[in-house]
Amino acid sequence: SDLLAWSPDGRRIAAGGIGHLPAEDCGLVTIWNATSGSRLQYLAGNVGIVRALAWQPGGNRLVAGENYKGRMQVWDADKGQLLHTIQAHGHYLSSLAWAPDGRQLASASADQRIRIWDTDSWKPIRTIDPAHNGVVTALAWSKNGERLVSSGNDGLVKIWNPNTGTPVNVLRGHQSAVNACCWWKGSEHVLSSSNDGTLKVWDSETDGAGRTIPATVACAWSPDSRQIALGTHSGSAAGSTVKVLDAATWQTLSVLPGATNSDPWALAWSPDNRRLAAGFDGGLLQVWDLATRKA
To bridge 218 with a disulfide, which of 50, 112, 152, 231 should be the other Cys (CB 3.0-4.6 Å)? Predict the structure, then answer.
């Protein structure tokens, strides 16, 4: 999920509205001190509930996508200043992803489209229409910026050439909507998570899934591709659990107990791979130090 975003320096976490804030707090983004847990500021955009967030690589701009009319807002996160409000899509924004060099941003929507934006002019460079048959649920750039992966409610994972908007590969195998996708090890492999209850690891150049494991409600690769965090269903009064696995062996490295019995709706790694943030229903944001396994 794109509902949590770490600042590039790892000092702050931005949280969007779905599952985090009451409905009347429309357009609100909360920025927290990642170490102390204190709230630093509210960004009030006066649009629909924020569904997607993306922090500029190495920069101070934070982009928020709304859950209503498809508007996108660009903030100076240091000053708390709204820079632009853009009518980006015809339906709600589901995912946002900055290119690694920070010069372009990709947006995905329930209008079935992917748009790629010039982040100086905030004009669209390219529109992929339709990208999926239904909601485009997630987006991610490869580390070299030469490929874009997307997932959709149509059960497909697609790899695109962002320079041309043409599909390079279509990965078929999920039996239901795919709700998350990301790259692993640069541009060699793709991870996808589906409502069919599975998590698949794909070779990005072929259409075969190299590994399938039981999925959970949220997942996130560490920035160094060495670990994967999985959020599990709570299922009991004991509360939900977040597991950290070794990506090479798929063995469990840590079990991080949640402080609530609700499911985690978002997981996000700090840029230095040392901390993990989880957002839960009811507005709880929990951050663990993975060395001590303490929140």
Answer: 231
Q: How far apart are CA 15 and CA 254, in angstroms?
A: 24
221 half-sphere exposure, CB direction, 13 A CA radius: 22
Cα 218 to Cα 95: distance, rounded to the nearest angstrom = 15
How many contiguous H segments (helices) and E segments (strands) does the chain have? 0, 27
The two structure tokens encoding residue 65: 């996508």
Instruction: Give CA–CA dist 174/152, Å, rounded.
Output: 11
Q: Cis ω on the peptide bond leading into residue 271 (within 30° of 0)?
A: no
Give the residue from 37, 21, 6 showing the smallest Cα distance to 286. 37
The residues that bridge with 101 in the sheet, in sequence order, are none
Burial (0-12, 13-18, 19+ Cβ within 10 Å), 102 = middle
Q: How is 16-45 classified by DSSP, letter by letter?
A: -STTTS-TTSTTEEEEEETTT--EEEEEE-
- The CA distance from 136 to 149, in Å, is 11
